[in-house]
Amino acid sequence: MDLAIKDISRHAGKFIATILGVGLLLTIVFIMNGIYRGIIADGVWLIENTDTDLWVVERGRGGPFNEQSRVRMDMYKSVQATPGVMQAGPFIVYAVQRELAGKSQQFSIVGYDIAIGLGMPGRLIAGRQITASHYEMVADKKLGLQLDDKVRLGVHDYRVVGITKGAVDSGGNPLIYLALPDAQEVLYQMDNQAIYASRAASLQRLLNAGLSQEDAERMLPLVSPPVDTISAVLVRLRPGEDPQLVKDLIEKWLYLSVFSSDDEKNLMLEGRVKRISIVLGTFRILLLVVSIVIVALIVYVLTIEKIKSIATLKLIGASNWVIIRLILEQTLLLTISSFLFGYTMAVLLKVSEKFPRTLYFLPFDTTSIFLIMLVGGILASGLAVWHALKAPPALALGG
Amino acid sequence: MPILQVERIRKIFGEGALAVTALDSIDFTVNKGELMALLGPSGSGKSTLLLCLSLILEPTAGRIIINNEEIYNNGWTNVDVRRFRRENIGFIFQGHNLIPFLTTLDNVALVMTLNGVSDRDARKKSIEILEYLEIAHRADFYPSFLSGGEQQRVAIARAIANEPALIFADEPTASLDTERGFKVMELLKRIAKEKGSGVITVTHDHRMIEGFDTVYELRDGMLVK
Question: How far is B138 from chain A (nearest CA, A)?
Answer without folding.
Answer: 17
